[in-house]
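Lab notebook, bench 4. Still working through the backlog of constructs that have no structural model yet. Next entry is a single chain of 212 residues. Request: give me the structure tokens for it.
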Amino acid sequence: MGQQHNELNRAVEIDHAVRVIVSETDSESKVERFSETLTPILDIWSRPEWAFLRNEVLFSVGPQTSAAVAAQSSFVQLFNPVTSTRIVVITGAAFKATVLSTDVNLGVTTIVRGASFDGAVALDSRYNEGGLWVGREPLSASFGALAPPFGTDLLVGQDSCLVAGQWQPFRNFPTIILAAGFGCNISNATLNSVIAVTFSGYGRPARKEELA
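Model written out:
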């Protein structure tokens, strides 16, 4: 089979990841040189542990419970601070509600709200320092209750509780990309009702062209 030209993105983190994966130590070699001879089977997104090589921090948030409040909707929220220099990608969530068939809403927001709690914990032990699991994505995580509607928030997804008091994944969760100053939340559509939520995703440094 003849050589195939396999064009690769020139982003710095991809260049670094490819070098590490193929054990390349020659500082003069360029990724595009590899692409001239490699067949297109090298997938640097195929292994979770390679996220570290792409400078992406895989993380989990929660579980966090938001208590029932009379005439209010309980929620759990993530927010990428306005001063952030990172891009945060939320890839999934799970929730536990106490009312069978209650609707559970997924919204995007530009408003910081609620009481804060310990946020996104890195799922890669290579972020350990001194034997302590300290790797955290610098997200603002909060919970609370609010009388709906949620201001200018936009509804982007909805699920319903299948079994009261049991965890379930948020079905058909859309990937949400949070630039600085944006967030997302999951809330219980049934007023005066508890909800518990976990989120998963990853963060990476924003490139210059991604910063406002």
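Notes after review: Residues 12-21 form the longest helix (10 residues). The chain has a mean pLDDT of 85. Flag for follow-up if needed.
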